[in-house]
From TrEMBL:
Protein's UniProt keywords contain S-adenosyl-L-methionine: no
Naturally occurring in which organism (per UniProt): Kaistella carnis
A single cellular component GO annotation: membrane
Keyword Transferase: yes
Protein origin, superkingdom: Bacteria
Record's protein name: Histidine kinase
Residues in Signal transduction histidine kinase internal region domain copies: 158-236
Transmembrane residue ranges: 7-27, 33-54, 74-97, 117-135, 369-390, 396-416
UniProt KW keywords: Kinase, Membrane, Transferase, Transmembrane, Transmembrane helix
């Protein structure tokens, strides 16, 4: 119980005490006003502090978010027991000690009715406090989750942009190296290479800002780039394209083939007597780039931008991995073909968004149950009061109490029932299966 809560209880005490004194106290004296305030404080502070302590204890032991069911069950049991004990204590002090009534009739007659009504009012207030604590806990949790997912998405986007921005200088640097070699070897080819390079670089600029491109676009660009390489290496390098027609409309990361082709050239020597054969083909939903191995000695350590860039970009876009296979005779890279134009930066938040929607739906279900419980605790005591005041010989309020109570029990089973975990597991399985199909 904090200072703010104690101030609130004091105001409630003052309000209730004043109302009782003005409307229900026949003799208006200052002494009676003080007595009314003391009795009001007895009920307000005893019941409020008792409920506050049990709530604080349960909140420390069990989280509303992580242990919702256990927290709710223990809250109901604890609140019921605590309020019954506290109400009996307050009524005993009020009726038996202050008013000197006969203790033999404490559980019957007017005192018994007062016990019943006071317990229901206390339970109503407790239910409101529980509902308030539950909603605040879930709001706080969902806000933190949304902020966390936004930070993850922003971080992933920033990382992805950083990887894509490596492509411009990387491609330009390597192309200029090729051009530099051609100027000495064959100035005519160097001139044609320069013209072709400008067309290819335009494609690089157009595609680098895209997260995915179609396999068809990437293959067409790769063929143009291969023509550029043929300009320099002539019959020392050969290229074989064999991509299934059905895979052309699927997606890969942009410039992946260009980087892998460049990687083949960079790490292997090619001569007319020992040509370099490069194959690009698709199989089982994957795109393969394979070359025979004529590994050259590296004068200086490679920057490792090509393969590392592709691996990192795919890791941000999908759970499917890029596989690299090397033997004594060949080197092969397998990159996944994505069947839908979705990325991790849109798919992941989407899945989290659906999880958030399920959580929000769960909150609404629980709020509905608490609203039903609060209405029950408010309406049934009111009906009981009307019944006992108008026709105490026939307790008709028992029937709506039992009927509504049964409906409330069914509502509780629906919200906290055993089958709920099974339902949530099935929903999660469907989401995971759909997510894997999309990728």
């Amino acid at each position: 119980m904090n200072r703010k809560s104690l101030i609130t209880i004091s105001w409630i005490t003052f309000f209730i005490g004043t109302v009782i004194f003005v409307f229900f106290t026949p003799v208006k004296t200052f002494r009676n006003y003080l007595v009314t305030m003391v009795i009001s404080a007895l009920y307000s502070f005893t019941i409020a502090v008792g409920n506050g302590l049990i709530n604080d204890y349960l909140n420390k032991k069990y989280s509303w978010v992580e242990n919702t069911r256990k927290r709710t069950i223990l809250g109901i049991i604890g609140t019921l027991l605590v309020n019954v004990v506290l109400v009996f204590f307050c009524n005993y002090v009020n009726f038996i000690i202050f008013q000197h009534r006969n203790s033999a009739h404490f559980f019957s007659g007017a005192m018994g009715t007062s016990n019943w009504l006071t317990i229901n009012v206390a339970l109503l207030i407790s239910a409101i406090l529980h509902a308030k604590g539950f909603v605040e806990a879930w709001k706080s949790s969902t806000k933190q989750e949304v902020v966390q997912q936004k930070l993850i998405a922003k971080s992933a986007n920033a990382q992805f942009e950083s990887l894509k921005n490596q492509l411009d200088p990387h491609f330009l640097f390597n192309s200029l190296n090729v051009l530099s070699s051609l100027i000495d070897e064959n100035p005519g080819q160097a001139q044609r290479f320069t013209a072709s390079m400008s067309k290819i670089y335009r494609y690089v600029l157009e595609q680098k800002d895209k997260e995915l491109v179609t396999v068809e676009e990437e293959i067409n660009f790769a063929k143009t780039y291969c023509d550029l390489l043929k300009t320099r290496f002539e019959d020392s390098v050969s290229f074989d394209f064999n991509v299934n027609e059905k895979d052309l409309k699927s997606y890969v990361v942009p410039l992946s083939l260009q980087l892998l082709l460049e990687n083949c050239i960079k790490h292997n020597f090619a001569t007319s007597s020992k040509p370099l054969h490069i194959k690009i083909y698709s199989e089982n939903g994957n795109l393969f780039i394979e070359n025979n191995l004529h590994q050259r000695e590296q004068v200086k350590e490679s920057a490792g931008i090509g393969l590392a860039n592709i691996v990192q970009r795919y890791s941000l876009l999908t759970k499917q991995n890029v596989f690299i296979e090397k033997s004594a005779t060949f080197f092969r890279v397998k990159i996944p073909i994505l069947t839908q134009k979705t990325t991790a930066m849109t798919t992941q938040p989407s899945q989290e968004s659906m999880a958030y929607q399920r959580a929000a739906k769960r909150v609404e279900e629980l709020k509905g149950f608490y609203s039903n419980l609060i209405s029950y605790c408010l309406v049934i005591p009111f009906l009981a009061f009307i019944n006992l005041y108008t026709s105490p010989q026939y307790l008709w309020f028992v029937w709506p109490m039992l009927g509504w109570g049964f409906g409330l029990s069914m509502h509780a089973l629906k919200v906290y029932g055993i089958g709920k975990n099974w339902e949530e597991k099935q929903i999660q399985k469907i989401l995971d299966r759909d997510h894997s199909k999309n990728l």
